[in-house]
């Protein structure tokens, strides 16, 4: 592999991975039942409210640290059991946690980052399930920012990020001026214990 990594990120989109009726039911149940909160994020050395609502879900031992705080996960809601089992079957990854994000409208967003915390180990597989309004998801190479890839993440879609995607690329969910309804995104991850 070249020093700068592969030409495109190791990502795969499966539109309609969840059928529309099931995706509607899943959206409604998560929207209603998850304990959504405003998380605090660090930006340029300051703590600010994240421009979205979030909920960290996982096995009780899947602790996750970010922005300097350890987060104890919420228990798995019944509505996610089938999705988790299907993802494990299709990817071979025993996902033990999910970060759920609720973008209330087009103003809610997520800035440039990569999910490269040591908890996820090298070359993590991250399975991103989208429900609700279609939003644009963008990836940009870390060292060659002119290299960009964009995906429209529609209701029921699955985006898998693998390989060196977190090491070599950043991703973001930009805000948009379009009038949009809410969107829920679920990123299934595997937290590996560390010493
Ligand atoms: O909402 C999305 O599609 C992306 C979410 C994301 O990047 C994350 O949760 O780390
Ligand atoms: Fe991310």
TrEMBL record:
Keyword Oxidoreductase among UniProt keywords: yes
GO molecular function: dioxygenase activity
Domain Fe2OG dioxygenase: 94-192
Top-level taxonomic group: Bacteria
Keywords: Dioxygenase, Oxidoreductase
InterPro entries with a match to the protein in the record: AlkB-like, AlkB-like_sf, ALKBH3, Oxoglu/Fe-dep_dioxygenase_dom
Any Pfam family matching the protein: 2OG-FeII_Oxy_2
Protein name in the entry: Alpha-ketoglutarate-dependent dioxygenase AlkB
